[in-house]
Amino acid sequence: MKFQKRDESKGSGTGSKLFLKVESGDHVVGLLRGEISTYYQKYEDGKYSVVAKGTKGATERFSVNIIVNGEDGKPVAKIFQFGVGLSNEFYRLQEDYGDLERIFIKIRREGEKKNTKWYVSVPKDQPSERQLEGLMAIPLNILDREETGPSLKPNTLFVEEEIGTITYDDAQNRIAELKGKASKGYEKFPGDDGSDEDSLPF
Fold it and tell me: Stretch 38-53: mean pLDDT, rounded?
């Protein structure tokens, strides 16, 4: 994962259980994972729509997987969408901390729609190597490689371990296998002091 400096002059919502939604005034702590996908959207008639690159008035947007605590309290991968401004905040963190896939990041939102402002910071509590091992085993959502926004498609899966492109059926088997590894990795992490940590410091 590598963030690039973006042109903020070109400007910056979505939800289902696959997508991470942060309300104004709230924050989330998570671990960014995998590749960064680019798409374009346009704000018109009070709502955002995904459009083709080069569409007049369109803004560049990005999607990435982020590991957060799910509704059941266990870490899960969700799709996080953001604009150029927040991408540049991640870029600045990357300059200071290096690999962002190995640290927890706190992301806070203030405001709505075109008035949204995002703030990022690095919390004090960070994952141990044992925690990271479990988090890295959590299956990621498929990000559409085309410039039409992120989606899950039952055709191919791009796996982090670089084993290549595989069929959907094989992907489901692989996901089940990875979930087994992940559950062993994150249900209880031994602390550095020898004590047990029952949950992640999200």
Answer: 88
What is the C-alpha to C-alpha distance for residues 149 and 109, in angstroms, rounded to an integer?
Answer: 22
CA–CA dist 105, 31 (Å, integer): 6
**DSSP of 33-85, one letter per residue?**
EEEEEEEEEEEETTEEEEE-TT-TT-EEEEEEEEEEE-TTSSEEEEEEEEEHH
What is the DSSP code (8-state) at residue 119?
Answer: E
Phi and psi, residue 25, nearest 5°: 90, -10
Whether the per-residue pLDDT at 97 is higher than 80: the answer is: yes
- The DSSP secondary-structure symbol of 144 reads P
Q: Decide which of 18 and 202 is more confident.
A: 18
Q: What angle do CA 117, 66, 21 make, to 5 degrees?
A: 50
